[in-house]
Design goal:
26% strand, 7 strands, 3 helices, single chain, alpha+beta, five-stranded antiparallel sheet, two-stranded antiparallel sheet
C-alpha cells in the first residue's frame, strides 16, 4: 500500500496586543515553551499538586490526580474569567494573579500574555515563592 504525501502550509500573521506591540505566533510559542519549562521545575516543589498551562493554540497539563482533569480545568477557567469580570466591574485594573484557598488545597492562577496558568498546591505550599519563579 502506498502512503499519500500531504503538504501543510502555515501562514504567520501578526497579533496586536493591547499595548500595541505586535506579537507573532513564533514569539507566542517561545513564551509558551519558556513557561512550560518553568512550570515543570515548579511541579517538583514540595506541595505542588500540578498545573495547567493554556496558550492560544496548545495546552499542557500535569496533575497528581489526572482523573480530575475536567474539574481542575473548569476551576482554572472560571477563576480567570471571574477575576477579570470582578476587576472590570469595580474598575480595579488587570488582576496580577488570583489565589483561591480552600480547606486543604489552593490554586494560583495568572495570565501572562496570551498564556493562562493555574497551579494547584497544598494549602501549606508557599505561593509567593512560586510567583517569584514565573517570568512575567
Amino acid at each position: 500500500m502506498v502512503k499519500k504525501k500531504s503538504s501543510i502550509t502555515e501562514t504567520a500573521s501578526a497579533i496586536m496586543m493591547e499595548d500595541g506591540e505586535p506579537e507573532t505566533p513564533i514569539q507566542e510559542d517561545e513564551a509558551f515553551t519558556t513557561l512550560s519549562e518553568t512550570l515543570k521545575e515548579i511541579r517538583k516543589l514540595k506541595g505542588v499538586q500540578g498545573y495547567i498551562l493554556r496558550g492560544t493554540t496548545s495546552a499542557t497539563i500535569d496533575l497528581k490526580e489526572p482523573e480530575k482533569i475536567v474539574e481542575y480545568a473548569i476551576l482554572s477557567s472560571q477563576a480567570l474569567d471571574s477575576s477579570r469580570e470582578i476587576t472590570e466591574l469595580f474598575n480595579l485594573g488587570e488582576p496580577q494573579h488570583i489565589l483561591i484557598q480552600g480547606k486543604e488545597l489552593k490554586t494560583l492562577s495568572l495570565l501572562i500574555g496570551a498564556n493562562k496558568i493555574s497551579i494547584f498546591m497544598e494549602k501549606t505550599a508557599d505561593h509567593t515563592e512560586i510567583l517569584n519563579r514565573i517570568p512575567h
